[in-house]
Design goal:
By secondary structure, the protein is mainly alpha-helical. It is built from 12 helices and 2 strands; from the N terminus they run H-H-H-E-E-H-H-H-H-H-H-H-H-H. Helices cover about 70% and strands about 5% of the residues. The protein has a two-stranded antiparallel sheet. A hairpin with a 3-residue loop joins strand 1 and strand 2. The chain is elongated, with a radius of gyration of 22 Å.
Length: about 250
């Protein structure tokens, strides 16, 4: 598409940044330049000194922005050779959610509110559209949950995989793509939840949700998902309140 043209342009569009949110502005300009073909895959970015002059900001802001781009796999530093653009998936880069993942700390309760809105609808679609391969994936995730109750990090990964498999079972590509874009945010929230609340609820609800999906019982599946997420929110709030009271 015209947004993904790899042809280099004769002149870049970099301009001095405003003082507020400098790091984010630098990140966005460099990312957009990569996406729009100013620096195709394999080409060398301007040096830190060049970027400092063109963008009118400190080398610290430049380095932080480059670090974020590298963490996304967009660029790579070559010893003694500068920083080069790597091959990438433009579909993900064009998402406006991506800077949020890299630049901001996301409140776990906000993530749960997102899930509270999204996941009941997702599971309803999964009930109607899941095929045998989807059921196999969900069963595998549930078995992984049961086998990893003593390893909270592994349990959290299996828990997240169950929900990602639900999105795939919905056969809605938008749901799948959104989860892919915010996977790092979801993963961090799942680990925090499991470490805070343990494994019991995950085992209880996931097995019951899977049973409802197999029975093609959308009413039961949706009700269980709503109860699951709402209970998680309530338990986290109670836990936080208890800590505050104890501290007081």
């Amino acid at each position: 598409t015209r947004y993904m043209s790899r042809a280099p342009v004769k002149k870049d569009s970099l301009k001095p940044v405003r003082q507020a949110r400098v790091k984010q502005q630098v990140f966005e300009q460099l990312r957009n330049g990569i996406v729009r073909g100013s620096w195709p895959a394999g080409t060398r970015l301007p040096s830190e000194n060049e970027l400092t002059v063109k963008l009118g900001c400190s080398r610290i802001s430049i380095r932080e922005a480059l670090h974020m781009l590298a963490s996304l796999g967009l660029i790579e530093a070559r010893h003694g050779g500068g920083t080069f653009v790597r091959s990438y998936s433009g579909e993900v880069l064009l998402s406006p959610l991506l800077p949020m993942i890299v630049l901001e700390q996301t409140d776990i309760l906000h993530v749960l509110e997102y899930r509270q809105i999204l996941e009941p609808g997702c599971v309803a679609l999964a009930v109607a559209r899941a095929v045998e391969a989807d059921i196999v994936d969900l069963e595998h995730a549930c078995r992984s949950l049961g086998a990893s109750t003593q390893d909270l990090r592994t349990f959290a990964r299996a828990d997240l995989e169950f929900h990602l498999a639900l999105a795939r079972a919905s056969k809605n590509p938008v749901l799948v793509k959104v989860n892919s874009v915010i996977r790092d945010v979801l993963s961090a929230s799942w680990e925090e939840i499991v470490h805070a609340l343990g494994t019991r609820d995950g085992l209880h609800y996931h097995n019951r949700i899977l049973k409802a999906i197999k029975a093609r019982d959308a009413v039961a599946a949706v009700a269980l998902m709503e109860e699951h997420v709402t209970r998680t929110i309530d338990r986290l709030k109670q836990r936080a309140s208890g800590k505050e009271n104890a501290a007081g």
